[in-house]
């Protein structure tokens, strides 16, 4: 059995795989395995995975049909033989001592979970934590403080979650993953890490936060264009699916209603994003199409509930949220149309 299994889902990442594996091999962990999960790549990534597996004893390769990152990670978990499990995206850059630090911290504190800070190349900043210098969470604090901070903010004016619930910043125990059947959801392609963390943190006795950047989250130009400037069909339906997944996970542990209250602030951000996305359809599908989609979003029951009780002080956001609350699809279409033209 290994001390650590690092799972790397790979899909058409031919330009990044070798560099990422090279960094992982420098972690200085003797009993470690690196599991490359080729998710049906078609750009030659699959061949590089095989070459790396043949060249290094620690590197193992698994080829599967394309099913998305959640499915790829799940396949990696099934094959993992390590006591602890970590995840790394093929085009990101963990520090050369990241997993050694996380592993030693978990062993020293007898913890079930360990998280580090992340630097985002796109945003040009660290994601950070609300707890300076790190923190240890015990028993109920794992859900009441750590998980709550991943679900949303207590302040309606703040659109950012206090803790970004990504799996690549964390180390998990294989025993807990297997004992409770914890896996990534495969029916969603957005924030599946958050659902995974909710499922895991429910069963944590002790978690440790390290207030240090050990992981660099990178973006290539293609993914930037796809994510932020091009209309994404079915975004609203996918966000609703995510919300349903999360609500199902937290209902049994939300004793005071605080988790649902926090998650409402995140839901508003999701729908804000969906309306902006619908406005992007103007350039390729026309104003009428964008208007109809925005009207459908603001008239839905799930959006009505999310925007029903607002305490917003920021005037710009208050105006925008009131347009959504009052179902003013025409004004929203014009607002976002003008805003997108200026970019």
Topology, please?
Layout: E1 2-10, H1 17-25, E2 32-39, H2 45-55, E3 59-64, H3 69-79, E4 82-87, E5 93-94, H4 98-109, E6 113-120, E7 125-126, E8 135-138, H5 141-151, E9 170-173, H6 174-179, H7 192-201, E10 206-217, H8 221-228, H9 235-250, H10 258-279, H11 282-285, H12 287-298, H13 301-306, H14 315-325, H15 329-342
Parallel strand pairs: 1-2, 1-4, 2-3, 6-10
Antiparallel strand pairs: 4-9, 5-10, 6-7, 6-9, 8-10
Describe the structure.
Helices cover 48% and strands 18% of the residues. It is α/β, with parallel strands linked by helices and 343 residues long. The protein folds into two domains: 2-223, Spore Coat Polysaccharide Biosynthesis Protein SpsA, Chain A (Alpha-Beta Complex), CATH 3.90.550; 229-342, no CATH class. Strands 1, 2, 3, 4, 5, 6, 7, 8, 9 and 10 form a ten-stranded mixed beta sheet that branches. Helix 2 (45-55) links the parallel strand 2 (32-39) and strand 3. The radius of gyration is 21 Å and the shape is globular. Residues 222-228 have low confidence and may be disordered.
- What fraction of the residues are assigned to beta strands by DSSP? 15-25%
CATH topology of the largest domain: Spore Coat Polysaccharide Biosynthesis Protein SpsA, Chain A
Largest sheet: 10 strands, mixed
Structural class by sheet pairing and helices: alpha/beta
Radius of gyration using CA atoms only: 21 Å
Instruction: Count structural domains.
Output: 2
Low-confidence stretches: 222-228
Q: Give the termini distance in whole angstroms.
A: 53 Å
CATH homologous superfamily descriptor of the largest domain: Spore Coat Polysaccharide Biosynthesis Protein SpsA, Chain A
Shape designation: globular
């Amino acid at each position: 059995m290994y001390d650590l299994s690092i799972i790397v889902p790979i899909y058409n990442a031919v330009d990044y795989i070798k560099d990422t594996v090279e960094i992982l091999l420098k972690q200085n962990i003797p009993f470690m395995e690196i599991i490359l999960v080729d998710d049906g790549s078609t750009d030659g990534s699959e061949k590089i995975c095989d070459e790396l597996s043949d060249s290094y004893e620690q590197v193992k390769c698994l080829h599967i049909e394309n099913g998305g990152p959640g499915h790829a990670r799940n396949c990696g978990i099934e094959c993992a033989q390590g006591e602890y499990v970590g995840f790394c995206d093929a085009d990101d850059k963990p520090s050369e001592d990241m997993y050694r630090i996380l592993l030693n911290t978990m062993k020293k504190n007898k913890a079930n979970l360990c998280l580090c800070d992340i630097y985002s190349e796109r945003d040009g900043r660290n994601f950070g934590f609300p707890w300076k210098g790190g923190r240890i969470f015990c028993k109920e604090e794992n859900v009441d403080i750590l998980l709550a901070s991943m679900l949303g903010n207590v302040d309606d004016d703040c659109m950012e979650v206090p803790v970004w619930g990504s799996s690549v910043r964390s180390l998990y125990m294989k025993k807990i993953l297997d004992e409770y059947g914890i896996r990534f959801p495969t029916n969603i392609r957005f924030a599946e890490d958050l659902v995974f963390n909710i499922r895991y943190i429910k069963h944590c006795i002790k978690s440790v936060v390290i207030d240090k950047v050990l992981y660099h989250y990178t973006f290539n130009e293609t993914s930037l264009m796809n994510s932020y400037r091009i209309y994404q069909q079915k975004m609203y339906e996918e966000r609703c699916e995510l919300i349903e997944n999360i609500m199902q996970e937290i209902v049994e542990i939300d004793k005071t209603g605080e988790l649902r209250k926090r998650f409402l602030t995140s839901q508003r951000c999701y729908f804000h994003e969906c309306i902006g996305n619908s406005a992007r359809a103007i350039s390729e599908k026309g104003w009428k199409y964008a208007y109809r989609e925005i009207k459908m979003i603001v008239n839905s029951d799930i959006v009505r509930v999310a925007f029903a009780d607002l305490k917003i002080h920021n005037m710009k956001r208050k105006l925008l949220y009131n347009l959504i609350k009052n179902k003013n699809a025409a004004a929203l279409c014009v607002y976002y149309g003008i805003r997108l033209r200026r970019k």
